[in-house]
Amino acid sequence: MNTVQIGSLRLEISEPEESIALVRDWPGRSPARPAFFGYLNPHVYNQSVVDRDVATFMERCEAVCLDGIAVALAGSLLNRVRLPRVVMHHVFDRCVQAGLLRGRVILLGLTPEDIGPASESLRRAAPEADFVACHHGYLSDSDYAAIFREHRDADFILTGMGTPRSERVLLLAAEICSHALCWHVGGGNLRHWAGTKRRAPLLLSRLGLEWMHRIAYEPETRTRYTRGIPFFVRQVLADTWQGRRGDNPG
């Protein structure tokens, strides 16, 4: 892991194999404790600026994937070290294919119509996982708390509700579930498993051009790029400058 500062966030940045090892080694890990696993992209960073729960979740993560060219480039330049771009859905797919998703699993996210197909697809793909609870992403905090209390022995809690909702629900989960890996896998990732999202071709993904595919096929996300990227650049530079001035007040 690389401990780095990206703007206002101090994060544990993981390589692909480190991310997979975290999932592989989690069930039965000693001492038992909850932990967080998430990803950072410009949208998540922008939300962390205005929502303290997002920032808290990110800084408490055991591992963070830099899921985007912009954040990987910003992190590398600001820290003067090469940081990898790690796509979370690639990590998730590899873990599922390798049989690493096992034990008691809570799955939360998507719409009431999509969560059923997603959970069925994952049950078939990950037969060693016991999906003890699968619910859509539009319940109340009290409803989610009741689910966590009923399954407080869960090994994995997977969310795909979007930011900041996923981060808030996982912070709540860690207060109740004593040894769960609270994993923000992403709503787009779960939509793929539900059969309602078309993923970018592998070549585009490897070149870091998935954003072009999303702009073309997911018009509702366009402002994340046309407005979100410029905001991210300005904000991360401003936060970095402010942080460095605070470290050197003279």
What do you see in this structure?
- This protein is an alpha/beta fold.
- It has one domain (2-247).
- The chain is 52% helix and 18% strand.
- It has 13 helices and eight strands.
- It has helices at 16-25, 42-50, 52-60, 69-79, 88-97, 112-125, 141-150, 165-176, 187-194, 202-206, 210-217, 222-226, 228-247, and strands at 2-6, 9-13, 35-40, 61-66, 103-109, 129-135, 156-160, 181-184.
- It has a six-stranded parallel β-sheet, sandwiched between helices.
- Helix 8 (165-176) links the parallel strand 7 and strand 8.
- Helix 1 packs across helix 5 (88-97), helix 2 packs across helix 3 and helix 2 packs across helix 13 (228-247).
- The radius of gyration is 18 Å and the shape is globular.
- The model has no long low-confidence stretch (mean pLDDT 92).
